[in-house]
Amino acid sequence: MAMPSQRFSLTWVLNLFGTAVGAGVLFLPINAGMGGFYPLIIMTLLVGPMTYLAHRGLTRFVLSSKYKGSDITAVVREHFGEQAGKLITLLYFFAIFPILLIYGVGITNTVSSFMENQLHIAPPSRAVLSFMLIAAMIGVMLLSEQVMLKITTCLVYPLVLILLAYLFI
Fold first, then answer.
1. Which tens digits make up the pLDDT trace of 115-154?
2. Which residues are within 8 A (CB) of 114 and not within 5 positions of it... i.e. 6 or more apart?
3. With contact defined as beta carbons under 8 Å apart, do 157 and 22 qualify?
4. For residue range 97-106, what is the model confidence (pLDDT) as tens digits?
5. Among 20, 55, 122, 140, fewest CB within 10 Å belongs to which?
6. Comparing C-alpha atoms, which of 22, 23, 40 is closest to residue 31?
7. Rounded to the nearest 5 degrees, what angle is found at the Cα of 132, between the Cα atoms of 127 and 138?
8. In the Cβ-directed half-sphere of 133, how many Cα atoms lie within 13 Å?
9. What's the rounded Cα separation, in Å, for the pair 72 and 62?
10. Which pLDDT score is estimated for 121?
């Protein structure tokens, strides 16, 4: 199996970082910082390793498959059998679906607010706006991995540069 290039790997890492930071900025409640700087730092120090270790374990599990390109449900079926595969797939769906609903509502609220307050234009109805946004995101994902990476790179690199500049100000 050929190893991906260093540049490709760096692009993926920065995109994952940027999307995680973007999601954090989108959903970080203002109240989280009201307790002060130190509780926020302590929370970050606790949550960071927990998230890293959980993702590392999940990644290792998915990569343990005998078959190249297997997803989590195929690996569960391979290791634990067909019935466990169906159960884990159902549980995985119930774990991910609410997150998708939350992101759908969050991005609709954010874009609607941006259109009203920064662009000073009336946004379309929430149903139309949410359909357009979700259709656009699905469209980007369906194009190809390379196109998706290029689009997210254009969004993420400026965010990473802003965060780095903010550290030195």
1. 999 999 999 999 999 999 989 888 877 887 778 778 777 8
2. none
3. no
4. 887 888 888 8
5. 122
6. 40
7. 125
8. 20
9. 5
10. 95
CB atoms under 10 Å from CB of 153, counted, come to: 16
- pTM score of the predicted model: 0.58
Paired tokens of 154: 């254009």
As a dihedral over the C-alpha atoms of residue 90, residue 94, residue 100, residue 103, rounded to 10 degrees, the angle is: -160
| Cα separation, 73 vs 67, whole angstroms | 13
For residue 103, CA distances in Å to 119, 130, 137, 140, 146 come to 22, 11, 12, 16, 23
Question: pLDDT under 70 in the chain at which residues?
Answer: 1-5, 8-10, 12-33
Structure tokens at 74: 């195929």
Helices 72-80 and 82-117 sit at what angle, rounded to 10 degrees? 160
Three-state SS for 160?
helix
Residue 15: predicted pLDDT: 67
| Sign of the dihedral defined by the CA atoms of residues 103, 104, 106, 108, in that order | positive
CA distances from 72 to 17, 45, 64, 101 (A): 22, 28, 10, 21
Do residues 141 and 148 make contact, with C-beta atoms less than 8 angstroms apart? yes
What integer pLDDT is reported at residue 17 of this predicted model? Answer: 63
> What integer pLDDT is reported at residue 165 of this predicted model?
79
